[in-house]
Amino acid sequence: MLPLAERLRPRTLNDYIGQKHLVGQGAVIRQMIEQHNLRSFILWGPPGVGKTTLAKIIAHELECPFYTLSAVTSGVKEVREVIDKAKRDAAIHGGLFADKDTQRGVSPILFIDEIHRFSKSQQDSLLGAVEDGTVTLIGATTENPSFEVINPLLSRCQVYVLKPLGKDDLLELMNRALTEDEYIRSRHIEVKETESLLRYSGGDARKLLNIIELVAGATGDRQQATGERRTSAGDKPATGIIIDNDTVTKCLQQNPVAYDKDGELHYDIISAFIKSIRGSDPDAAIYWLARMVAAGEDPAFIARRLVISASEDIGLANPNAMLVANACFDTLQKIGWPEGRIPLAMATVYLATSQKSNSAYLAIDKALAEVEKSGNQPVPLHLRNAPTKLMEELGYHDGYKYAHNFPNHFVKQQFLPDELMGTRFWEAQGNPQEQKMAEWMKHLWE
Question: How much is the pTM?
């Protein structure tokens, strides 16, 4: 029997749960579908929020050819084969557009799951077909496309962010499972409490349905074996199943598959790991590291997260943390496994016991918000380069003061655009390292 998540996969947009900002009335993807004006885009979001389902629904609604590739198993050869097939199909059906006057695209859809795993050459092989409309690309990724997708492909695709499902969405999905799935309905499930169900799901629709299916089976077998739940007469086990917080928690703790590096608890445990480091609890951090090591997690994945934590959570309070995290990453590549667990443990303890600061993280986010708000502010003339005579005549570089020619290698001058003069993006936090930095800046500027 198919998993519950697959049995309940919606087939139409009206059955799709969540992501109202993209598929609700008047939202951008719904409008593209209704207007038959589909353009290439990338869906970025955590597991189990409907990326693959949405791509299939779009192809169904538009009644156009739908090709799928997985970045895990496909290479340049498979990409080219699909593009050639799309060209043949388009020729058979009279071209790439159903309406030549409006040029509203119904090109064949190429859906690539885990597009972030594609190499640069694999992504390059998509550019021509996406550019000329041979295919409409829909990519799905759990990783930030800014880091994992090449710029030429990003420039041809809009990125849409999918959010974890909210409480109301998850409850709607739960009720659908209880009322519409034949097997689950036959179990006569009564849900008395949902707190644990929602907490363990973590906004992941697939995880929610997997938990319901797991708990329904395990709880039913246990209740029937022990006679825990009885009829009012008290003489026969009832056929119904009660799901409450205690039942969910016990069942999941007893689940032998306590970690799935392909999805399930993978993100929960790495989250607990990073939050333990951030919270300066080396014992908890080592425990979660051990869970990942025992489950066969990719060591490089753990090392990447340590580098991120070193910059995001320790930051300027202890710049050596970045060096330690990077050295750990490099050492893993040199010595491999199982010895690699030792530098991972070393880096984990070092980061967990380091003083913490997120001032750099806050500074870049504040600056990005300002860029979004104020747009492309002009660079002050004295900061501009002047490689040509015309630029010199226009005042480029005029008045710039070379800091190294002054005491302390510093001289006061304007570096921000005129409209942002006096704006502060970086604020020192209370650790000794940043206090020294702040005092030095105060000495220079004030």
Answer: 0.57
